[in-house]
Amino acid sequence: MPAPPRLCRCGNIVPAGEVCTCQREAIRARKRRADKNRPSSSQRGYTGGWRKLRAEFLRLHPFCKMCGNTAEHVDHIKPHRGDQALFWDWRNLQALCAHCHNSVKQRQERANVRT
């Protein structure tokens, strides 16, 4: 049996599993504020050297470590947080498909930040 709809704070009835339009806008605003304070990709170390390393890593590891699909992303297993030794350490890298990188891995990282 599907979950029943819920009542949002704004008074709208929202189907189960969906996000109310007011919440969607609040999420977008929060992400815009976070992005404004975030350094650019090159400032975080993702330069031409990284692109070369990434291409070589994907050539050697063409499949997602989590699900086995074709890998598209090279992910840091342990977030480097600016640590250059950890950033360039091949033992700290894994190949992931877009789905696993953008959903499964992000969910894991958010859970680790909270604990």
TrEMBL record:
Family from the record: Belongs to the HNH nuclease family.
GO molecular function annotations of the record: endonuclease activity; hydrolase activity; nucleic acid binding; zinc ion binding
Protein name (record): Putative HNH nuclease YajD
InterPro entries according to UniProt: HNH, HNH_nuc
Keyword Transferase: no
GO CC list: cytosol
Taxonomic lineage: Bacteria, Pseudomonadati, Pseudomonadota, Alphaproteobacteria, Rhodobacterales
Keywords associated with the record: Endonuclease, Hydrolase, Nuclease
